Amino acid sequence: MIRHIVFFNARDKSDLETIYNGLSLLKTNPHATHLEIGRNNHVDELSGDAVDFVVYGEFSDDAALAAYKAHHTYQDAIDIVRPFRDLRMAADFIAA
């Protein structure tokens, strides 16, 4: 299984709902076996406001992750979120 984790932050905090709604489109993508969109609670003093949202997805294999990224909802989410975010940091790893 591939785990896909992406961190986002808003350039302007007034755009948090727009970003959340854009990221939520990813939940309609049929290629993830599990997908969550979460808001950072900002309780870690070291990270401060560096991350506002986390996308966590699980995929059966590399092909499923590639299909997820090729699906139109992935591009739809990018089109909405990209203008309002500063940070996007992603990591993929094979779950043991």
Automatic annotation (TrEMBL):
InterPro entries: Dabb, Dimeric_a/b-barrel. Pfam families: Dabb. Residues 2-93 form the Stress-response A/B barrel domain. Signal peptide: none annotated. Transmembrane segments: none annotated. Gene3D superfamilies: 3.30.70.100. This is Stress responsive protein. The lineage of its organism: Bacteria, Pseudomonadati, Pseudomonadota, Alphaproteobacteria, Rhodobacterales.
